[in-house]
């Protein structure tokens, strides 16, 4: 990073941080990718990939956009199936959710604000 500008590659940078490119979890200080206002994730999911547990008590708003493949966003009262590049879903605070990739998929997720405490513990 130089002069408040960071140039990267989502697949490489995301792989180093669980897909996350921007948010509160990036190094504070001079790293322009650090933000308490918004989080951005480049999610690369192999076929059969699923979230290990539901997100409950959600305090953020999220936008999830399908880049490629097929992706299911599980909500308590329905499943949203994203099938075409550009399909997206938005949900707000209080909406419990999970997800699964029935086939290889790439999704871009934007959440706001950037809040700690939603990471699934490693097994």
From TrEMBL:
Q: Which InterPro entries match?
A: RmlC-like_jellyroll (IPR014710), RmlC_Cupin_sf (IPR011051)
Q: What is this protein called?
A: Signal peptidase I
Q: Which organism is it from?
A: Plantactinospora mayteni
Query: What superkingdom does the record give?
Result: Bacteria
């Amino acid at each position: 990073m130089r002069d408040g500008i960071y140039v990267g590659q989502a697949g490489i940078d995301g792989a180093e941080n669980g897909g996350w490119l921007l948010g509160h979890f990036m190094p504070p200080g001079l790293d322009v990718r650090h933000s308490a206002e918004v989080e951005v994730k480049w999610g690369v999911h192999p076929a059969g990939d699923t979230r290990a547990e539901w997100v409950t008590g959600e305090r953020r708003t999220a936008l999830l956009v399908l880049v490629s493949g097929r992706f299911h966003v599980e909500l308590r009262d329905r499943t949203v199936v994203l099938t075409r590049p550009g399909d997206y879903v938005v949900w707000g605070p209080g909406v419990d959710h999970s997800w699964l990739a029935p086939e290889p998929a790439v999704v871009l997720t934007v959440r706001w604000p950037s809040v700690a405490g939603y990471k699934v513990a490693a097994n």
